[in-house]
Amino acid sequence: MVVERTLSIIKPDAVARNLIGTIVKVFEDNDIKVQAMLMKKLSQKEAQSFYIEHKERPFYGSLVAYMTSGPVVLMVLEGNNAVERNRKIMGATNPAHAEEGTIRKMYAESLERNSVHGSDSPTSAQREINFFFPNL
Ligand code: CMP
Q1: Whose CA is nearest to atom 11 of ligand 1?
Q2: CATH code given to domain 3-132
Q3: How far does the centroid of ligand 1 lie from the alpha carbon of residue 116, in Å?
Q4: Which atom of ligand 1 is nearest to 9's Cα?
Q5: Residue 52 confidence (pLDDT) above 90
Q6: Strand runs labelled E in 11-94
Q7: Per-residue confidence (pLDDT) for residue 1, from 0 to 100
Q8: What pTM, to 2 d.p., does this model score?
Q9: Annotated active-site positions, please?
Q10: pLDDT confidence of 2, banded at 50, 70, 90?
Q11: CA 36/CA 77 separation, integer angstroms
Q12: N or C: which end of the chain has fewer CB within 10 A?
């Protein structure tokens, strides 16, 4: 087992529906620790830059508009195999394909409004944590 850190975002749709505590509890119940937490409204520039790898995708503009539509909760999560385990706990990007019991299956509204983001690899985790928590 390797102790890892990963970046998690509780997205605007979940924040708007008072799901912050519910989602944090899912992580904590799975022995994942919240190491850092910050609630803020992302600027256009931050969202564009955070999702730069999707720049050429047709959904990029809509994704940026959605991610800046309301506050998000940024978290650094830590635990054994946290990157992979967080992705399992979140479920598939598209809630229609997510397994029962996953956060996205339970709470996501759509492929775009999918309630949570999680780093997809240890390399992305390092970039994403550094992006929002440069002093950690
Ligand atoms: P996330 O894990 O934050 O990474 C990129 C986000 O883009 C993804 O979650 C979805 O919210 C969104 N996304 C991915 N694919 C699509 C798509 N085909 N159409 C709309 N949004 C998408």
Answers
A1: 112
A2: 3.30.70.141
A3: 10
A4: 3
A5: yes
A6: 33-40, 72-80
A7: 80
A8: 0.97
A9: 117
A10: very high
A11: 7
A12: N
Q: What is the pLDDT of residues 55-95, one digit of tens each?
A: 999 999 999 999 999 999 999 999 999 999 999 999 999 99
Domain positions in the chain? 3-132
pLDDT tens per residue, range 92-107: 999 999 999 999 999 9
Mutate which of 50, 111, 121 for ligand 1 pocket (most atoms within 8 A of beta carbon): 111
Which amino acid is located at 28 in the chain? Answer: E
Most ligand 1 atoms within 8 A of CB, residue of 93, 115, 116 to mutate: 93
CA 111 to ligand 1 centroid distance, Å: 6
Sheet holding 72-80, edge to edge: 33-40, 72-80, 3-10, 116-118
In this structure, what token pair is assigned to residue 82? 């946290």
Cα 136 to ligand 1 centroid, rounded to whole Å: 27
94 Cα: distance to centroid of ligand 1 (angstroms): 8
